[in-house]
Design a protein that fits this description.
With about 325 residues, this protein is α+β, with helices and mostly antiparallel strands. It has 10 helices and 21 strands.
Protein backbone atom coordinates (compact mmCIF):
# COMPACT_ATOMS: atom_id res chain seq x y z
CA UNK A 1 0.00 0.00 0.00
CA UNK A 2 1.22 3.49 -0.74
CA UNK A 3 1.80 5.87 2.14
CA UNK A 4 -1.20 7.95 3.09
CA UNK A 5 -1.14 11.70 3.01
CA UNK A 6 -1.16 13.44 6.38
CA UNK A 7 -2.42 16.78 5.08
CA UNK A 8 -6.05 15.77 4.65
CA UNK A 9 -8.68 17.83 6.47
CA UNK A 10 -10.63 16.46 9.43
CA UNK A 11 -13.24 13.80 8.79
CA UNK A 12 -16.15 16.27 8.85
CA UNK A 13 -14.51 18.51 6.26
CA UNK A 14 -13.58 15.48 4.18
CA UNK A 15 -17.24 14.48 4.14
CA UNK A 16 -18.04 17.85 2.56
CA UNK A 17 -15.81 16.89 -0.38
CA UNK A 18 -17.63 13.63 -1.13
CA UNK A 19 -19.57 13.51 -4.42
CA UNK A 20 -23.28 12.57 -4.45
CA UNK A 21 -23.86 8.81 -4.18
CA UNK A 22 -26.77 6.38 -4.21
CA UNK A 23 -24.99 4.04 -1.83
CA UNK A 24 -23.95 4.72 1.75
CA UNK A 25 -21.24 7.01 3.13
CA UNK A 26 -20.21 6.77 6.79
CA UNK A 27 -17.81 8.90 8.82
CA UNK A 28 -15.34 7.43 11.34
CA UNK A 29 -16.38 3.90 10.42
CA UNK A 30 -14.93 1.26 12.74
CA UNK A 31 -13.01 -1.18 10.55
CA UNK A 32 -11.93 -3.46 13.37
CA UNK A 33 -15.48 -4.78 13.56
CA UNK A 34 -15.35 -6.07 9.98
CA UNK A 35 -11.89 -7.69 10.10
CA UNK A 36 -11.37 -11.24 11.27
CA UNK A 37 -8.61 -10.09 13.63
CA UNK A 38 -11.14 -7.70 15.24
CA UNK A 39 -8.51 -4.96 15.61
CA UNK A 40 -7.73 -1.59 14.08
CA UNK A 41 -8.82 2.03 14.00
CA UNK A 42 -11.56 3.75 11.96
CA UNK A 43 -11.70 4.86 8.36
CA UNK A 44 -12.27 8.57 7.81
CA UNK A 45 -14.97 7.64 5.29
CA UNK A 46 -16.44 4.24 4.41
CA UNK A 47 -18.32 4.00 1.10
CA UNK A 48 -20.60 1.12 0.10
CA UNK A 49 -21.65 1.69 -3.52
CA UNK A 50 -25.14 0.76 -4.65
CA UNK A 51 -23.90 -0.79 -7.91
CA UNK A 52 -21.15 -0.51 -10.53
CA UNK A 53 -22.50 2.76 -11.88
CA UNK A 54 -22.49 4.29 -8.41
CA UNK A 55 -18.91 3.14 -7.88
CA UNK A 56 -17.76 4.51 -11.24
CA UNK A 57 -19.42 7.90 -10.69
CA UNK A 58 -17.96 8.18 -7.20
CA UNK A 59 -14.43 7.49 -8.41
CA UNK A 60 -14.78 9.89 -11.34
CA UNK A 61 -15.99 12.75 -9.16
CA UNK A 62 -13.92 12.19 -6.02
CA UNK A 63 -11.09 14.78 -5.76
CA UNK A 64 -7.84 13.20 -6.91
CA UNK A 65 -5.94 14.15 -3.73
CA UNK A 66 -8.14 11.93 -1.53
CA UNK A 67 -6.66 8.44 -1.09
CA UNK A 68 -8.92 5.46 -1.82
CA UNK A 69 -8.52 1.94 -0.45
CA UNK A 70 -10.49 -1.20 -1.12
CA UNK A 71 -11.28 -3.87 1.46
CA UNK A 72 -13.20 -7.10 1.12
CA UNK A 73 -14.61 -9.20 3.96
CA UNK A 74 -11.56 -8.54 6.14
CA UNK A 75 -10.30 -12.13 6.27
CA UNK A 76 -6.65 -11.36 5.46
CA UNK A 77 -6.59 -7.72 6.52
CA UNK A 78 -4.75 -6.04 9.38
CA UNK A 79 -5.96 -2.47 9.93
CA UNK A 80 -3.45 -0.52 11.97
CA UNK A 81 -4.53 1.11 15.25
CA UNK A 82 -4.50 4.67 13.89
CA UNK A 83 -7.06 3.82 11.23
CA UNK A 84 -7.19 4.84 7.59
CA UNK A 85 -7.07 8.40 6.26
CA UNK A 86 -9.20 9.01 3.20
CA UNK A 87 -11.91 6.74 1.77
CA UNK A 88 -12.30 3.00 2.22
CA UNK A 89 -14.61 1.22 -0.23
CA UNK A 90 -16.39 -2.02 0.63
CA UNK A 91 -18.68 -3.82 -1.82
CA UNK A 92 -22.16 -4.84 -0.66
CA UNK A 93 -24.77 -7.42 -1.63
CA UNK A 94 -25.22 -6.19 -5.19
CA UNK A 95 -21.64 -7.30 -5.86
CA UNK A 96 -22.18 -10.82 -4.47
CA UNK A 97 -24.44 -12.14 -7.25
CA UNK A 98 -23.61 -15.43 -8.96
CA UNK A 99 -24.87 -17.14 -12.11
CA UNK A 100 -23.77 -19.67 -14.72
CA UNK A 101 -23.59 -19.70 -18.51
CA UNK A 102 -22.93 -23.25 -19.70
CA UNK A 103 -19.53 -24.12 -18.15
CA UNK A 104 -18.80 -20.52 -17.17
CA UNK A 105 -19.34 -19.17 -13.66
CA UNK A 106 -19.94 -15.40 -13.40
CA UNK A 107 -19.58 -14.00 -9.88
CA UNK A 108 -19.46 -10.61 -8.20
CA UNK A 109 -16.24 -9.62 -6.47
CA UNK A 110 -18.12 -9.32 -3.18
CA UNK A 111 -19.15 -12.99 -3.17
CA UNK A 112 -17.53 -15.19 -0.52
CA UNK A 113 -15.12 -17.79 -1.87
CA UNK A 114 -16.89 -20.59 0.02
CA UNK A 115 -20.29 -19.52 -1.35
CA UNK A 116 -18.90 -19.53 -4.88
CA UNK A 117 -17.54 -23.04 -4.43
CA UNK A 118 -20.89 -24.29 -3.16
CA UNK A 119 -22.81 -22.51 -5.94
CA UNK A 120 -20.58 -24.14 -8.54
CA UNK A 121 -21.01 -27.55 -6.93
CA UNK A 122 -24.79 -27.23 -6.89
CA UNK A 123 -24.63 -26.40 -10.60
CA UNK A 124 -22.58 -29.54 -11.24
CA UNK A 125 -19.44 -27.58 -12.11
CA UNK A 126 -16.06 -28.76 -10.86
CA UNK A 127 -12.77 -26.93 -10.56
CA UNK A 128 -13.72 -24.35 -7.94
CA UNK A 129 -13.65 -26.70 -4.95
CA UNK A 130 -10.37 -25.22 -3.69
CA UNK A 131 -12.18 -21.92 -3.06
CA UNK A 132 -14.08 -23.59 -0.22
CA UNK A 133 -10.79 -23.73 1.67
CA UNK A 134 -9.95 -20.04 1.24
CA UNK A 135 -11.42 -17.49 3.66
CA UNK A 136 -12.46 -14.23 2.06
CA UNK A 137 -14.12 -12.93 -1.08
CA UNK A 138 -13.57 -13.16 -4.81
CA UNK A 139 -12.12 -9.65 -5.11
CA UNK A 140 -9.31 -10.52 -2.75
CA UNK A 141 -8.86 -13.92 -4.40
CA UNK A 142 -8.35 -12.19 -7.74
CA UNK A 143 -5.97 -9.63 -6.27
CA UNK A 144 -3.65 -12.21 -4.70
CA UNK A 145 -4.21 -15.16 -7.06
CA UNK A 146 -5.46 -17.07 -4.03
CA UNK A 147 -4.92 -20.78 -3.95
CA UNK A 148 -5.11 -23.90 -1.81
CA UNK A 149 -5.00 -27.67 -2.13
CA UNK A 150 -3.09 -27.69 -5.39
CA UNK A 151 -5.08 -25.09 -7.33
CA UNK A 152 -5.34 -21.32 -7.58
CA UNK A 153 -7.48 -18.66 -9.25
CA UNK A 154 -5.33 -18.49 -12.37
CA UNK A 155 -6.23 -22.13 -13.13
CA UNK A 156 -9.90 -21.30 -13.67
CA UNK A 157 -9.76 -17.60 -14.58
CA UNK A 158 -11.37 -16.45 -17.83
CA UNK A 159 -11.96 -12.69 -17.40
CA UNK A 160 -12.64 -9.93 -14.88
CA UNK A 161 -13.99 -6.40 -14.65
CA UNK A 162 -12.20 -3.70 -12.67
CA UNK A 163 -12.41 0.08 -12.21
CA UNK A 164 -9.39 2.33 -11.91
CA UNK A 165 -9.05 5.36 -9.59
CA UNK A 166 -10.53 7.63 -12.28
CA UNK A 167 -13.66 5.46 -12.60
CA UNK A 168 -12.74 3.91 -15.95
CA UNK A 169 -14.01 0.38 -16.59
CA UNK A 170 -11.55 -2.30 -17.68
CA UNK A 171 -12.28 -5.78 -19.03
CA UNK A 172 -9.31 -7.97 -18.16
CA UNK A 173 -8.11 -11.16 -19.84
CA UNK A 174 -5.85 -13.85 -18.41
CA UNK A 175 -2.87 -12.18 -20.08
CA UNK A 176 -3.82 -8.79 -18.60
CA UNK A 177 -3.82 -10.16 -15.05
CA UNK A 178 -0.16 -11.20 -15.07
CA UNK A 179 -0.76 -13.95 -12.53
CA UNK A 180 2.12 -15.39 -10.53
CA UNK A 181 2.33 -16.99 -7.10
CA UNK A 182 0.00 -15.00 -4.81
CA UNK A 183 0.30 -11.97 -7.09
CA UNK A 184 -1.22 -10.14 -10.05
CA UNK A 185 0.14 -7.25 -12.10
CA UNK A 186 -3.08 -5.22 -11.81
CA UNK A 187 -2.48 -1.78 -10.20
CA UNK A 188 -3.13 -1.74 -6.47
CA UNK A 189 -5.77 0.99 -6.71
CA UNK A 190 -7.98 -0.82 -9.23
CA UNK A 191 -11.20 -2.29 -7.82
CA UNK A 192 -12.46 -5.65 -9.06
CA UNK A 193 -16.23 -5.93 -9.40
CA UNK A 194 -16.76 -9.20 -11.28
CA UNK A 195 -15.00 -12.37 -12.41
CA UNK A 196 -15.79 -15.12 -14.90
CA UNK A 197 -14.34 -18.58 -14.35
CA UNK A 198 -14.30 -21.51 -16.77
CA UNK A 199 -15.05 -24.80 -15.06
CA UNK A 200 -15.94 -28.34 -16.15
CA UNK A 201 -19.08 -30.38 -15.75
CA UNK A 202 -18.87 -33.10 -13.12
CA UNK A 203 -20.80 -35.20 -10.65
CA UNK A 204 -22.36 -32.99 -7.99
CA UNK A 205 -21.93 -35.48 -5.14
CA UNK A 206 -18.30 -36.14 -5.98
CA UNK A 207 -17.66 -32.40 -6.03
CA UNK A 208 -19.34 -32.00 -2.64
CA UNK A 209 -17.32 -34.91 -1.24
CA UNK A 210 -14.09 -33.20 -2.28
CA UNK A 211 -15.24 -30.00 -0.61
CA UNK A 212 -16.04 -31.94 2.56
CA UNK A 213 -12.49 -33.35 2.53
CA UNK A 214 -11.12 -29.82 2.24
CA UNK A 215 -13.27 -28.67 5.15
CA UNK A 216 -12.07 -31.53 7.36
CA UNK A 217 -8.46 -30.85 6.43
CA UNK A 218 -8.78 -27.16 7.32
CA UNK A 219 -10.46 -27.95 10.63
CA UNK A 220 -7.69 -30.36 11.57
CA UNK A 221 -4.72 -28.27 10.47
CA UNK A 222 -5.68 -24.60 10.87
CA UNK A 223 -7.02 -22.41 13.72
CA UNK A 224 -10.25 -21.73 11.82
CA UNK A 225 -12.24 -20.87 14.96
CA UNK A 226 -9.80 -18.24 16.21
CA UNK A 227 -9.49 -14.51 15.47
CA UNK A 228 -6.94 -14.88 12.70
CA UNK A 229 -6.05 -13.33 9.38
CA UNK A 230 -5.44 -16.59 7.56
CA UNK A 231 -2.06 -17.42 6.09
CA UNK A 232 0.36 -14.72 7.26
CA UNK A 233 3.27 -15.13 4.84
CA UNK A 234 3.57 -16.43 1.29
CA UNK A 235 5.70 -19.54 0.88
CA UNK A 236 9.21 -18.68 -0.37
CA UNK A 237 10.30 -20.51 -3.52
CA UNK A 238 10.92 -24.16 -2.70
CA UNK A 239 10.16 -23.69 0.99
CA UNK A 240 7.20 -23.61 3.37
CA UNK A 241 6.75 -20.54 5.56
CA UNK A 242 5.41 -22.54 8.50
CA UNK A 243 8.45 -24.83 8.54
CA UNK A 244 10.82 -21.86 8.60
CA UNK A 245 8.84 -20.23 11.42
CA UNK A 246 8.74 -23.47 13.39
CA UNK A 247 12.49 -23.90 12.98
CA UNK A 248 13.24 -20.51 14.57
CA UNK A 249 11.03 -21.13 17.61
CA UNK A 250 8.06 -19.15 16.37
CA UNK A 251 5.32 -21.62 17.26
CA UNK A 252 3.35 -20.30 20.25
CA UNK A 253 5.36 -17.05 20.42
CA UNK A 254 3.37 -14.14 21.92
CA UNK A 255 3.46 -10.36 22.13
CA UNK A 256 0.69 -9.09 24.37
CA UNK A 257 -2.43 -10.94 23.28
CA UNK A 258 -1.03 -11.60 19.81
CA UNK A 259 0.10 -15.19 19.35
CA UNK A 260 1.60 -17.47 16.71
CA UNK A 261 -0.80 -20.40 16.42
CA UNK A 262 0.27 -23.67 18.05
CA UNK A 263 -1.79 -25.51 15.45
CA UNK A 264 -0.31 -23.88 12.32
CA UNK A 265 2.54 -21.43 12.86
CA UNK A 266 1.92 -19.46 9.67
CA UNK A 267 -1.20 -18.10 11.38
CA UNK A 268 -1.29 -15.19 13.82
CA UNK A 269 -4.07 -15.10 16.42
CA UNK A 270 -5.72 -12.38 18.48
CA UNK A 271 -6.31 -14.13 21.80
CA UNK A 272 -8.67 -11.39 22.91
CA UNK A 273 -7.24 -7.92 23.49
CA UNK A 274 -4.36 -7.72 21.00
CA UNK A 275 -3.73 -4.45 19.19
CA UNK A 276 -2.87 -4.30 15.52
CA UNK A 277 0.60 -3.15 16.58
CA UNK A 278 1.07 -6.35 18.61
CA UNK A 279 0.15 -8.55 15.66
CA UNK A 280 2.33 -6.64 13.20
CA UNK A 281 5.29 -6.57 15.60
CA UNK A 282 4.93 -10.31 16.13
CA UNK A 283 4.91 -10.89 12.39
CA UNK A 284 7.99 -8.73 11.94
CA UNK A 285 9.77 -10.65 14.68
CA UNK A 286 9.11 -13.89 12.79
CA UNK A 287 10.49 -12.32 9.61
CA UNK A 288 13.59 -11.14 11.49
CA UNK A 289 14.28 -14.58 12.95
CA UNK A 290 13.77 -16.42 9.68
CA UNK A 291 15.99 -14.00 7.78
CA UNK A 292 18.72 -14.20 10.42
CA UNK A 293 18.85 -18.01 10.35
CA UNK A 294 17.83 -18.91 6.81
CA UNK A 295 18.69 -15.77 4.80
CA UNK A 296 15.08 -15.85 3.56
CA UNK A 297 12.80 -12.81 3.79
CA UNK A 298 9.19 -13.82 4.32
CA UNK A 299 6.68 -11.79 2.30
CA UNK A 300 3.51 -10.68 4.06
CA UNK A 301 0.40 -12.30 2.58
CA UNK A 302 -1.86 -10.43 5.00
CA UNK A 303 -2.64 -6.91 3.78
CA UNK A 304 -1.64 -4.22 6.28
CA UNK A 305 -3.55 -0.97 5.96
CA UNK A 306 -3.55 2.37 7.73
CA UNK A 307 -1.35 4.24 10.17
CA UNK A 308 0.04 3.50 13.65
CA UNK A 309 -1.93 5.10 16.46
CA UNK A 310 0.75 7.66 17.35
CA UNK A 311 0.75 9.12 13.84
CA UNK A 312 -2.92 10.05 13.96
CA UNK A 313 -3.11 11.63 17.40
CA UNK A 314 -4.32 15.19 16.97
CA UNK A 315 -5.31 14.70 13.33
CA UNK A 316 -8.81 13.48 14.00
CA UNK A 317 -11.65 15.62 15.29
Amino acid sequence: MSAMKSTLPTTENLMDRMPPVRGRLRQNAELGKVTWFQVGGPADILFKPEDEGDLADFLKNLPADIPVYMIGVGSNLLVRDGGVRGVVIRLGRHFAKMNTDDDKLIVGAGALDAHVARFAADAGLEGAEFLSGIPGGIGGALRMNAGAYGADVSDIFLSAIAYDRAGNRHELSLKDMGFSYRHTDIPKDWIFTQATFRLSFGDRQEILDRMADISRNREESQPVRSRTGGSTFANPSGKKAWELIDDVGGRGLTIGDAMVSDKHCNFLINKGTARAADLETLGEELRRRVFAKHDTLLRWEIVRLGEPAEKTQGNRP
